[in-house]
Design brief:
This is Siderophore-interacting protein. By secondary structure, this protein is an alpha/beta fold. The chain contains seven helices and 13 strands.
Length: 328
């Protein structure tokens, strides 16, 4: 390794990949019954790196008295948060950076509203300009990769399939708006009601389908929609409606048995359902699934075991679990 390379590694070790950015609410916009967009501002956002796609960030919410306990700027901020007494430990929730405008020091985050059942929804329902939070996000001063982004389809895929519930809408919306349109893509978005269908700026070749539950259970619309889409995409050309783009990537030897070993044994009530494998590429279909863990598990099983998609071409993330709240 050259001396320059050693200095880069030393600098990367000294500069945290993520850091807290102190921000205040500039404005809010009610996008639909279930979504509100909060625009944050502050000079600290000059150092917020715009990594795009499904970049995960953490929002540190205020305590009931409006205070935020300082955690410092090091990579060990989370350990320090865990060590705090309960009365000083601020609620933390995970979100996607919907839009970043470093030149104007602004950051947009879309919050899902579900009443008073959690601290983030409760805060977002009552938020007003001037309210302050801390956003832990990628540090523009860090010279290396920062992580926290799972969208990484291989070159050469023929069709992209993105599926998720309302918690995945900000990530999927950001991804599909970034697509060039040179590769066909289908996004299936299950949301609480029809009025939650948001306008998205997508290019030709990108199809977005909104699936309002209107009181149905989570997954009742998304699961059959994924099956129908796969049926069209994996059918021989000219034999199914919708002009399929070609066959899915074939399953490799033992793919189904590997899924059996890994997936069926995952208890989504106790374990994190999250895997972003390195895809072998080679054309076909690449799927990206996110949302309620139980639904994501069923979708993944269908893609690999029933539809024969190679598991290296299926990324899946259990963002949350029905009946459980996020711990941080």
């Amino acid at each position: 390794m050259t001396a320059g390379g050693e200095r880069t590694l030393e600098r990367a070790a000294e500069v945290p990949a993520y850091r807290g950015h102190s921000v205040k609410v500039l404005r809010t916009a009610r996008l639909s019954p279930s979504f509100v967009r909060v625009t944050f501002g502050g000079e600290d956002l000059a150092g917020f790196a715009d990594k795009g796609f499904d970049q995960r960030i953490k929002v540190i919410l205020p305590l009931p008295d409006g205070s935020i306990t300082p955690l410092g700027d090091g990579d060990d901020w989370y350990q320090r948060w865990r060590a705090l007494p309960d009365e000083l430990r601020n609620p933390i929730r995970t979100y996607t950076a919907r839009a970043v405008r470093p030149e104007s020091r602004e950051l947009d985050i879309d919050f899902v509203l579900h009443g008073e059942s959690g601290p983030a929804s409760r805060w977002a329902t009552r938020v007003a300009p001037g309210d302050r939070v801390v956003v832990v996000g990628p540090n523009a001063a860090h010279p290396g990769p920062v992580g926290g982004r799972e969208w990484a389809p291989p070159a050469g895929v023929e069709h992209l399939l993105l599926a998720g519930d309302e918690t995945a809408v900000p990530a999927i919306a950001t991804i599909v708006e970034s697509l060039s349109g040179s590769v066909r893509a289908t996004a299936l978005l299950e949301v609480p009601e029809a009025a939650d269908a948001l306008p998205l700026d997508v290019r030709p070749g990108v199809k977005v389908a909104w699936l309002p539950r209107e009181g149905a259970r989570h997954g009742d619309l998304l699961i059959p929609a994924v099956r129908e889409t796969l049926s069209a995409l994996t059918a021989p050309r000219g034999t199914a409606a919708g002009e399929p783009t070609g066959p899915a990537a074939p399953a490799g030897p033992g793919a189904a048995s590997t899924l059996e070993d890994v997936d069926v044994d995952v208890d989504v009530d106790e374990e994190i359902l999250w895997e972003v494998p390195e895809s072998t590429g080679g054309g076909g279909l690449y799927a990206w699934l996110a949302g309620e863990a139980g639904v994501v598990k069923l979708l993944r099983r269908h893609l690999v075991q029933e539809a024969g998609i190679d598991r290296s071409s299926v990324a899946f993330m259990g963002y949350w679990r029905l009946g459980r709240s996020e711990s941080a």
